[in-house]
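Lab notebook page, bench 4
Experiment: in silico fold of construct C2
Operator: M.H.
Input chain length: 144 residues
Purpose: comparison with the prior construct
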Amino acid sequence: MFEIIPFDRRGRQFSTYDPFRAFDEMERSFFKNSLTEFRTDVSDNGDSYLVEAELPGFSKEDIQIDLDKDRLTISAEHKSETEDSDEKKNFVRRERYYGSYSRSFDVTGIDTESIKAEYKDGVLNLTLPKKVPEIPAAKKIEIE
């Protein structure tokens, strides 16, 4: 009447061994915690946008914000070296860590001269004010 069907952690039903699926899952789990991008939230505040970028563990000097025409790029680079050794330099532990992030955003329709940035508690807040639409001045058109 009822069967017990095994599921993996993602809720999928187990089936026969598929080497391609196993390879895909291995690749996904390997790159799951890679430093490809950082989390951002963009909210519309009416007259401006607020971009909140999570960059924990970075210092203010590690973060760079560039503006090239209509493209805003946030990049962060983190380098760390740890070394434990005795007097003879026989290493017991030696580690190096390097990570870099980079994200770009289209800022068409943004007043780029008034962008403000603040970094506090691992969160970069960018205030991007919207351009005020130019309303043409009223004028009278003569009939020829």
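Observations: Residues 1-7 have pLDDT under 50 and may be disordered. The helical segments are 19-31.
Next step: discuss at group meeting.
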